[in-house]
Amino acid sequence: MGAINSMVPEWARQRLRRLERLARTVPYYGTGRVCPVCGKSSRRFREFGVGPREDAQCVQCGALERHRFLWLYVSRKTDLLDGRRKKMLHIAPESCFESKFKGLLGQDYLTADLRDPRAMMTMDITDIQYEDQSFDVIYCSHVLEHVQNDKKALRELFRVLKNDGWAILLVPITSETTVEDPSIVDPIERLRAFGQEDHVRKYGRDYVDRLREAGFTVEITKVDDLVCADEAVRMGLTPASGEVYHCTK
Questions:
Q1: Angle (deg, nearest 10), helices 95-105 and 65-77
Q2: pLDDT, tens only, 112-155
Q3: Do residues 64 and 53 lie in contact, with contact meaning Cβ atoms separated by under 8 Å?
Q4: At CA 91, angle to CA 152 and CA 52, rounded to 5?
Q5: Closest Cα partner for 35 from 89, 90, 97, 83?
Q6: Most distant pair of Cα atoms in the chain: their distance
């Protein structure tokens, strides 16, 4: 198959990819939903997840509920779009955001990940190799539940954030109180205890206490704090959108 592909001109492969994308999106044509990330409309969003959630993923840019809520929050409640220069650290970058942030910030936008080769640099967030107060903005979403020493990671994120900067540090809240056990290392046991093979804890409502222990002042925003019910439906904002934890010093 690889040999056959190598004989097909690049222009033909690109055209085929466009046709494949078109075929995937045709069933969703319509105007019942709009994605605030890419600005495109669809009849509905695509199902996504284990035990698929309805109205979950934008068929155009791939944004999920939490991504749509985050972009709406950033657009309406922060200074990210004001055109002024800002140095931003984006941990474990999501593809639906990378080009937007890069377009806004240019060379001041840095992506980092411990293992993903697509990121601009390899980074262990428990040992960040940057000086104090290096970044105006930090965005880290659904990462800390994979990190054994999350409290050290939070202290590092606090350290490299500028005194007048802000961070959005999101985790899935799946328990009333945080559940963790460092002795659980087997993937099957982690799946049973924490809901995913590579998670090391289930965060609860007390997550905000960890943020404050690291030194952050935290403001929590829910979907209904930002949009009316009709807007929430149109943008596919549901309980799966979670909450935004806006952190400052």
A1: 20
A2: 999 999 999 999 999 999 999 999 999 999 999 999 999 999 99
A3: no
A4: 105
A5: 97
A6: 58
